[in-house]
Write a structure and sequence with these properties.
Elements lengths: L2 H39 L6 H8 L3 H7 L3 H23 L6 H18 L1 H14 L6 H22 L8 H21 L5 H16 L14
Helix pairs in contact: 1-2, 1-4, 1-6, 2-3, 4-5, 4-6, 4-7, 5-6, 5-7, 5-9, 6-8, 7-8, 8-9
């Protein structure tokens, strides 16, 4: 490729790259502003004008990126759920049992929630509300279920997850416990989130541990 052609391609790509970077910065700024406002005053009391003002962009620009505050909220919920899936992915960088990975996930959750409790309540509430109502709720539920399944399947292959109960069933129990504890914390200001998550991790570790012989009735679940 000639130097002229190379220079032409580069000169054409740089403005596009700068535009993309600029758009990403504006979007990140709007999400950051929404994050701060939702945590401080809740979704109902926040307007798009508030978000635009805090993000230092015009009202028109804010609406161009997010036509409503509820779309901002939905984006933040997707961001939260993506972090959850990413944490599970990164756990496979190091050897560990399924129980250890679940305990690490539960501990990480407690830490993140404690860092931003008010925002976490808003996002967890929004996530609960949209499950079953949003068009992508089925896909979101399936992604979470598959993430727990991945942990359990890896543990079963390594011999540290029981083989007498389908991993689908174990994943449902784990997912239900996890979601139930987060819900209880969201609605109860004095709920001991970390203690409950730690206790759940211990109990679930016992539940998924290998058995020397099948538990009575387990065959019916196969």
């Amino acid at each position: 490729m000639s130097s002229v052609a190379t220079a032409f391609e580069l000169s054409g790509s740089r403005p596009a790259s700068r535009r993309a970077d600029g758009k990403a910065r504006v979007r990140a700024g709007l999400l950051g502003a929404a994050r701060a406002l939702f945590a401080r005053q809740g979704v109902a009391a926040t307007t798009m004008d508030d978000v635009a003002r805090l993000a230092a962009v015009s009202r028109a620009t804010a609406f161009n990126y997010f036509p409503s505050k509820h779309l901002l909220l939905a984006a933040l919920v997707r961001e939260m759920e993506a972090r959850f899936l990413h944490i599970i992915d990164t756990q496979f960088d190091q050897p560990a049992t399924a129980a250890e990975r679940l305990a690490a996930l539960f501990s990480w959750t407690a830490t993140k929630v404690e860092e931003t409790p008010e925002l976490s309540r808003v996002l967890i509430g929004a996530s609960e509300t949209t499950f079953g109502a949003a068009a992508d709720s089925g896909a979101r539920t399936a992604r979470t279920h598959r993430a727990f399944m991945r942990v359990l399947d890896a543990g079963r292959r390594a011999g540290n997850v029981r083989a007498d109960v389908p991993t689908e069933v174990l994943a449902e129990i784990i997912g239900g416990s996890y979601a139930g504890i987060l819900h209880a914390w969201r609605v109860g200001r004095r709920y001991p989130l970390r203690r409950r998550l730690d206790a759940a991790a211990v109990t679930l570790a016992e539940l998924i541990a290998p058995r020397s012989r099948p538990v009575r009735g387990a065959g019916a679940m196969r």
